[in-house]
Amino acid sequence: MARYALTGQSPPRLTETIIFAETAHRALAELSNGSPVFTGCDRSHKPLQGHGHAHIFCQSNRGQGQDGQGEITHITVYAPVGFRFPEQWALHRLKEIYDEKESGVQLALLGLGRPEDFGGTDQEKNECPLLAKSRSWISRMPFLPTRHPKVTRAGVPKRDARGLQIGSPEHDLRRLLRLAGFPDPADVEPVPCTSSGGRDVPWHAFIRRREKGQGKPAADGAGYGFRIRFAEQVQGPVAVGYGGHFGMGGFYSIN
């Protein structure tokens, strides 16, 4: 993984994460001459299986005194398959990100390493709660389900052995966590918002659709948040659901 600090003027806000992450992905794809690790597709443009290619996570770190309006202060580029020399070269060359309006944001590379090298909850030390190791986690970005709630022909909710409606946000969250290799959470509790810029920010305040990507979240595209607890510590990042490669669905550790 690679971790950057945003150093330019007028950085985007945390609520614009999915758009900014998509722009960063395009920049890295160009700098790496179309590396599958950044494009998510093979050389014949066929989508890769699994989720080993790059994710972009955004952070708004109040410890740096730059979170007056909830601006993004750091980004993390993470790929479970790792980065070979060509990808590392592209990561070193990523110094500025431009949107379609030619508005640029400058970046400073803080380092390359593994999640455990940067994880923690002390933002005064530039640690990232997304990359910590913990039993307890809370939504920092909206979770966007990928399935619809299931009902019978009579309109009665279909339920699993736990009593959860199949395809409901919590049911889909648990399913996606299992697919990502995490254990089933011992507890799951809904949360209505996160905090940014010194105020509560509801999930509907976030942009929740990519500008150019394929696919869409299930149902009405609403965002959801949860507090989850595992029986044992797990290593972050914990990020699942639609837009998971573009900053959505991310959880912060709770000590």
Structure overview:
There is one protein chain. By secondary structure, the protein is α+β, with helices and mostly antiparallel strands. It is built from five helices and twelve strands. The protein has helices at residues 17-31, 36-39, 85-93, 115-118, 169-179, and strands at 2-6, 55-59, 74-78, 96-98, 104-112, 133-139, 187-191, 193-196, 199-202, 225-235, 238-239, 250-254. A five-stranded antiparallel beta sheet has the order 2-3-1-5-4. Strands 7-10-6-12-11 form a five-stranded antiparallel beta sheet, with no helix packed on it. Strands 8-9 form a two-stranded antiparallel ribbon. Strand 4 and strand 5 (104-112) form a beta hairpin. The radius of gyration is 18 Å and the shape is globular. The two termini are 23 Å apart. The model is unreliable at 63-67 (pLDDT under 50).
Quaternary structure state of the chains depicted: single chain
Largest sheet: 5 strands, antiparallel
Q: Kindly report the spatial arrangement of strands forming the biggest sheet.
A: 2-3-1-5-4
How would the global form be characterised?
globular
Kindly provide the radius of gyration, computed on alpha-carbon positions and rounded to a whole number of angstroms.
18 Å
> End-to-end distance, in Å?
23 Å
Q: Please tally the helical runs, counting DSSP H or I stretches of 4 or more residues.
A: 5
Q: Output the helix-strand order.
A: EHHEEHEEHEHEEEEEE
Structural class: alpha+beta
Extract low-pLDDT stretches. 63-67
Could you tell me the mean pLDDT?
Answer: 87
User: Roughly what percent helix?
Assistant: 10-25%
